[in-house]
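[Discussion] Sanity-checking designs against the backbone

I'm trying to build intuition for which residues belong where. Below is a structure token string of 121 positions. I'd appreciate it if someone posts a full sequence so I can compare it with mine line by line.
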């Protein structure tokens, strides 16, 4: 299973990748913003996307909306990991096409639980 981690913070990408490694996922590609995320998805297969919301050039919501218009990507599982915790933010993310939502900071158990829930559908 190949993951795409999209976050403008290289430190946060490392934290997410280390978390994924701890729970058994090692095939991971990275992108620094939504525009790079679209490029990574276009370059090869991705089975699940983990994206931040607040990023330069193309934020997480814009990225998800663009992703959902790509051929065959309307059902690609997307997990948003962000500091945006307001109810209205969560609703906006779900309307944009996010499958599940994690508020930072998170534990490996939370990430695993949310990934399992996304993959179960």
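Best answer:
Here's mine. Compare freely.
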């Amino acid at each position: 299973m190949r993951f795409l981690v999209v976050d403008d913070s290289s430190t946060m990408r490392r934290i997410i990748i280390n978390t994924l490694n701890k729970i058994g996922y090692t095939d991971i590609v990275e992108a620094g913003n939504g525009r790079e995320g679209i490029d990574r998805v276009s370059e090869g297969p991705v089975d699940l996307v983990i994206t931040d919301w607040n990023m330069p050039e193309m934020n997480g919501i814009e990225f998800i909306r663009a992703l959902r218009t790509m051929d065959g990507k309307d059902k690609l599982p997307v997990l948003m990991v962000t500091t945006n915790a307001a109810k209205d933010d969560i609703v906006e993310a779900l309307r944009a096409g996010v499958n599940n939502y994690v508020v930072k900071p998170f534990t490996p158990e939370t990430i695993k639980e949310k990934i399992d829930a996304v993959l179960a559908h």
